[in-house]
Amino acid sequence: MTSSTATCAGLRFDRVSWLRGSNAFLNAALTSDAARILLLDRGHPLVHKSPARRKQVYFASWSDVRSTVLACVDRPEYGVFGPEPYNLRMREGSPQKVWLGSTQGLISPLLSLAFLGIEMREDGPSLPAEPGLHVPTGMPYFVLSLTARSQHRHAWTEACDVLDMRKALGSLAPQDTALVSMARSLIDWNERTRHCPSCGSKQYSALSGHKRVCGTALAKHAYPCSMLEIGGRAPPQECEAWSSLQNYTHPRTDPVVLVGVVCDDKILLARKRGWPKGLYSCIAGFVEQGESIEEATRREAMEETGLDVGHVSYQCSQPWPFPAQLMLGLLAFVKTPDAQVRLDLDNELEEAFFATKEQVKSMLCSQNDQQSHDVVRHGHPVTVPGPEALAHELLSRWAQSSHHVEVHSRL
Amino acid sequence: MTSSTATCAGLRFDRVSWLRGSNAFLNAALTSDAARILLLDRGHPLVHKSPARRKQVYFASWSDVRSTVLACVDRPEYGVFGPEPYNLRMREGSPQKVWLGSTQGLISPLLSLAFLGIEMREDGPSLPAEPGLHVPTGMPYFVLSLTARSQHRHAWTEACDVLDMRKALGSLAPQDTALVSMARSLIDWNERTRHCPSCGSKQYSALSGHKRVCGTALAKHAYPCSMLEIGGRAPPQECEAWSSLQNYTHPRTDPVVLVGVVCDDKILLARKRGWPKGLYSCIAGFVEQGESIEEATRREAMEETGLDVGHVSYQCSQPWPFPAQLMLGLLAFVKTPDAQVRLDLDNELEEAFFATKEQVKSMLCSQNDQQSHDVVRHGHPVTVPGPEALAHELLSRWAQSSHHVEVHSRL
Predict the structure, then answer these.
(1) What CATH number is given to the structural domain containing A269?
(2) Same domain, yes or no, for B172 and B49?
(3) In whole angstroms, how far apart are CA A330 and each of A32, A123, A394, B190, B306?
(4) Of B115, B184, B289, which to mutate for an interface test with A (greatest number of A Cβ within 10 Å)?
(5) What is the ipTM of this complex?
(6) Residue B290 and residue A346: Cβ atoms within 8 Å?
């Protein structure tokens, strides 16, 4: 398994980030026959109804979602958005530069919609944009959230099921898993980031879901005053946005180190309180501010196991959409082979032990062929996370590595 | 240079994260003679006055900051905090478990204070905490922000200068640079994250500056009602915090890929519009949601240079406190050696060219010995970022690697 086929990674389309701010492109792409619009309901994808285990994502067309989208745009209080999904009438007298800076790819505040990218095809449709912008030919992908639009949800119940996102990891094709993961993280962040962290005013989605901007910045520089009333109060002028137009918030991507602690020819397996009986994995934790990933790895090893690790070796990475983590898989080599594990520092783990390569191989295989294996702890057969988790990949890489490589890595 | 000595990394103290929620420990540590309290003014550290180029961080003691801290705690409207910096009177009838969950390490909303860690020394002071918590002996480190306390700033003007943080990177000892970097990122995040992203209510600092919690959660579960009035309005019950006590916000750590694009035996150097004349560096960009770091690397290479890269090799990482980035240094190998660079996709770069190892070595050396070197573009000698930047380390690793290693890596 290479990094590009890791679960939740491997999107084959181009994100064409430079097009996220072109209203001309976005409107043309969304309303074109080529548009493929993924639907999420509370972060879970809509799929074609099917008794088969392998599910297929349902992609709506513009005609399917037109009334849902335009119902948000057309409401009189948001009339400033104009007749298209991505649009906004220019305030009289606003300098064009300021206006463009704050309103690129802006959507009605009632709409959770994002542009994801283009699946490039030479024979695909050619879409227009502003002069000077390069637009590849192909199928444009969007995501529309139905979470706040329960009245529209019924339209799809005939054709679709809502597939739980955790189950989607094992039952969608890898390419669709990657697509839904990206869309879910982006929509989740948009729907949970409604207010400016600086002043509490309403934020608006800009760059088609890839940034958010404080209403205060818009109020001062570009917006018709009526828009402000959405926040329910006058704009607080002490907000940072009042002095800086660029008070954007950008999506969260939280790095997490997943650490295989290696001692001689064994690797540490640990379990947290409350996990299913017999389940063990590598240790993990968020990278903190002011840390390299190697330092975060050593800190987590010390905090959770009391082990002092020296050399750290990066192995693999994977996005994880619960809600928006970047998993970084590393091997960390214990300095003194006779070191004792202690779990009483941060008290996160219930138990930990060192397993051999043969034992780990047996655990990894037993998931595939459903056979029982021979590692038992406290009366329960030991299992490790399945192929959808980076821990599986990290353990697999270690188990398949040569002893020579490990010894070399420790030096 | 190993990762642990990278600029802004290499903190030698223990973050002891499990102590961030112990009011008993935090109060004892902050008010002990051993406390070392870093002061930041708008994110810039206070240092001892000195004409020397090498500056020393000024560490205040509890007696220095006592009146500043207690002025925030003692205000009548915040009387619920009680007489100590970390404290809060329990609401009558609140179940203890709920109470503890939301008020661990809580500080008065007017105070920007955070616990950083313990510099462990066997002969250091021993500090108390709740039963069951492991407390290493040593010197506890805190950071206190003076940004909103201009009336207290004068107390230090006799002894201290405010050192611009950018200059601090080159003029503080590496250990102090790492300390200030962590403190700056943490305080910056606290001071710019004042409101709940879900409902706009005031947030409070919990776990001594390492989380923030929506006032709505506190209102429902634990807080005396008077606290709510700080937000200036009744708590909105539609906030996620109303149904979930764990509506914490955690600090941002934004991963950025820094990419050395390698083609045969050359590496790409590029410059953005507006950079100082002659300055070139590696390309860089934020990791997006739903991407592995290898995918982010390939996307950035394509977006900024139009080059299709295959194999990607992680090299090194470094935190960067402007404001809270995690820099990830990678080499990326171009698939077809005769590929043409194009800069017109996202239009971020002004110019780019491939440099040889000898040229890069010359650029890296010229910064150290201040000698001129012989690479000139458009009439200006080419320079690369200094040792404080991860680009310097990445270029240096590549320039010192053997041709054999690169060829091998590309396969």
Answers:
(1) 3.90.79.10
(2) yes
(3) 44, 42, 7, 30, 31
(4) B289
(5) 0.92
(6) no
Domain count, chain B: 2
- List chain B residues with CB under 8 Å of A318: 292
Closest in B195, B255, B299 to A199, CB measured: B195
**A171 and A270 belong to one structural domain:** no
Give contacts of A 230-259 with B, CB under 8 A: 240, 250-255
Query: Six-digit token pair at B110?
Result: 């007017």
Pairwise CA distance, residues A353 & B258, whole Å: 37
Please judge whether B240 and A196 are an interchain contact, meaning their C-beta atoms are less than 8 angstroms apart.
no
Same domain for B371 and B277? yes
What is the Cα–Cα distance from A140 to A115, expressed in whole angstroms? 8
Q: For A8-96, list the strands marked E by DSSP.
A: 36-41, 44-48, 59-60
Q: Is residue A6, in this structure, part of any structural domain at all?
A: no
- Contact of B38 with chain A, judged by CB distance below 8 Å, is answered with no
Of B217, B249, B281, the position where a domain reaches its end is B249
Give which of A280, A260, A275 is closest to A386, Cα–Cα: A280
Task: Please give the helix or strand (H or E) that residue A204 lies within, else none.
Answer: strand A203-206
Residue B394 belongs to some domain of the structure: yes
Q: Which domain holds residue B103?
A: 13-249
**Segment-wise mean pLDDT, segments of 10 residues, chain A, 411 residues:** 60 90 94 96 94 93 90 65 77 66 81 94 87 92 87 77 93 93 95 88 90 80 56 64 66 97 96 94 97 97 96 96 96 92 92 96 76 78 93 96 52 34
**Do A220 and A155 share a structural domain?**
yes
Exposure class string for B235-254: b at 16+ Cβ within 10 A, else e: bbeebbbbeebebbbebbbb
